[in-house]
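Hello,

Our lab assistant flagged a job as stuck in the queue for most of the afternoon. It eventually completed. Since we weren't sure the result was trustworthy after the delay, we are filing this so someone can double-check. Below is the sequence as submitted and the structure that was eventually returned. Let us know if re-running is recommended.
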Amino acid sequence: LGVAKLAALDRMADKSAANLVAALDKSKNTTLPRFLFALGIRHVGETTAKDLARHFGKLDALMGLSLEEAATVEQLLEVPDVGPVVAESVHTFFQQPHNREVVEQLRAVGVHWDESEPNARAPKPLAGKTFVITGTLPTLSRDEAKDKLEAAGAQVAGSVSKKAGYVVA
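-- returned structure --
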């Protein structure tokens, strides 16, 4: 899609077309956990996707460059909070040629994410602490703040409860 093609559509002006193309380009930059969650792997929610990304660090370590190199069920069971049902689901997903092709097509059109080496041994100074984020933060979006807190080992809850140790406003 280009601005010229979109602008030719009914009720679409040049500025709207340019905004749409810019939004599409921006959406191609994501994170590995969000990409894994967006794949729609059965039994893999946001938290499990984060655990998988944190453990494997790179999509190719999880998916493998070929079917033989994909993570085994035993390797998936080493991920914290991943049980046999989820491990089998993830393994089966990446064994399907169609699913592997979809991932490669997404990469080919420019969808990308930062990858890092697994850092399971990195210090987690906020491990065991629960945070709630509310309001508008001056320098970060709420998602960015949540990602930073989780990277430091914290859990981020959606609402205040007696389990919440800290409220960030």
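-- support follow-up --
The delay was a queue issue, not a problem with the job. The result is valid. The radius of gyration is 19 Å. The longest helix spans residues 14-27.
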